[in-house]
Task: structure prediction
Amino acid sequence: MNNNNSANSSRRKVLQIAGSSLALGQGVIGTASAQFSTINSVKYFAANDVYSTSSDPTGDWELNSAHIDEVGVPAVREDEGQIVLNRRVPQNEINLFKNHSAVIYSDTFSTLPSQIIKGKDIPRVVLERTRNGRPTKVANPKSKFAPNSAKASARGKDLHLKIPQQKKSVTVNPGEEKEIVTGEGSVTLGISKLTDQKPDHQGIDPKEVGYIKKQKEETFDLTAKIKAKNYGELDVVMPK
Result:
């Protein structure tokens, strides 16, 4: 009886430690390495466009933007010096990591060389991204804005970025992160503010009805940038 209690207690402690590690985003591979296999080793890069406005709306006005929450663990992520693919990764992306020596993430995964920014009108203005490059805050442009195009290539262990319109070339060495300004322009964005008015809904308690938002558009100076990172050469692992 005492032996069973001791075993149960030890098992609970192990589960608690494992649960704490997972909650902190740690030890996902380390404690379960036997359940993963290495499928390749690749030079891994990220280069994503991100934008900033020269000023914020004045007064009580706020920029209309959507916040995108990252739900759960990304299907592909860099974790403790490895590229981890989970079971939700489509076969074409698995093949990409399995059959090539260099991969770049620029909203989608691709091999190199790659045209990471097309130089066409953008459908959204990405204002913030996660450390893995996923967009978390975006705004819808009300006017056209086309950033300068950009190309990415691998030169040995380095990531090489070229912005033809600016006659600019940038090298990102292994372990480096760089933010490169690729152009400036103006764009019209929606802004809004709360009023002291509430909509007149018959039969609904006024306390349960939100205030009316006043909407308008404003033109902002916009700076286009690329956030680039060279992760170096990493093992790619996935569940067995």
Observations:
- The mean pLDDT is 84.
- The first strand starts at residue 36 and ends at 53.
